[in-house]
Amino acid sequence: MKALICQQFGSINALRLEDIPAPALTSDQVRIAVKAASINFPDALIVQGLYQVRPTLPFSPGAELAGTITELGSDVTDWEIGDRVMACIGYGAFAEQCAVTTDALVRLPSSMAFTQGAAFVLTYGTALHALKDTAQLKAGETVLILGAAGGVGLAAIEVAKKLGARVIAAASTQEKIDLCRCVGADDVINYSKEDIKDRVKTLSNNRGVDVVCDPVGGDCSETALRCLAWRGRFLVVGFASGIIPKIPLNLTLLKERQILGVYWGDAVKRDPLNHQANMQLLTTWFEQGHIKPVVNEEIGLDQAAAAIERIANRKVKGKVVVSLQR
């Protein structure tokens, strides 16, 4: 089978498309014919050896996939050959076949295309866990989302709106701002031209926001923390900027603000029942038309390395999906 392979940690440009044997199947796994797999920022980190998970070399990157089950492990009873599924597996998705444990599987709704399924589990799972489980977002509250035109950012806009919140989306270009509006943001901030703190003051009538969702890190984090109202919650989702900010802790004391880490991958392992409930809620919302992945680009497997490089440099809007049906 063909797969995008990382032979050593380092340059993304060193990734190569190779022919390798299909993965062996254990008793608790299913074999999936991969129809689509999406690119996420952690794919760039894992290839460079900068992620919290370091796979055994060589390996194929790619965290999210959608496809059909072609073979069952001997202990698998709840799934059938031909079932349409999606999954977040950490790495290994940029390949024609994957062996996946059943606890990672989510049924693909009949109305959801494979390209949408490949762009669904990680981003929407992260957004819902961050806003519902971690921040305990309430209807009527206001959320400021940084990096709002990225995969998690766009999902967070839709999830926050479905939870009844007002959304202020912050992004770095007019094109990205326009996309955020199309997805449902109530207000927008172009932080390449506007001061985030001043705009939040104006938009909130000097009150501040209740929640900040930050998948970016870098220079904007401290400014966004200062935008929180009394007992506001700051969600640390990731560091797409490549910079982990150092925050003065007195900023939390002044208004009893909270800084909350969001580690969706570990939360799934610690509370699989809640993860399953979240996935059921999200697929229901999709079927009802309340949320829809923004697939901005569809590419072939031979173009995946270049796309990972672009997402590392924050030159991607929405989701880039690798199609293995082309």
UniProtKB/TrEMBL annotation:
SUPFAM superfamilies in UniProt: GroES-like, NAD(P)-binding Rossmann-fold domains
Record-linked Pfam families: ADH_N, ADH_zinc_N
Stored SMART domains: PKS_ER
Domain Enoyl reductase (ER) residue range list: 10-322
GO molecular function, a single term: oxidoreductase activity
Domain of life: Bacteria
Gene3D superfamilies named in the record: Medium-chain alcohol dehydrogenases, catalytic domain, NAD(P)-binding Rossmann-like Domain
PANTHER family noted in UniProt: QUINONE OXIDOREDUCTASE-LIKE PROTEIN 2 (PTHR43677:SF4), SHORT-CHAIN DEHYDROGENASE/REDUCTASE (PTHR43677)
Name of this chain's protein: NADPH2:quinone reductase
Organism of origin: Paralcaligenes ureilyticus
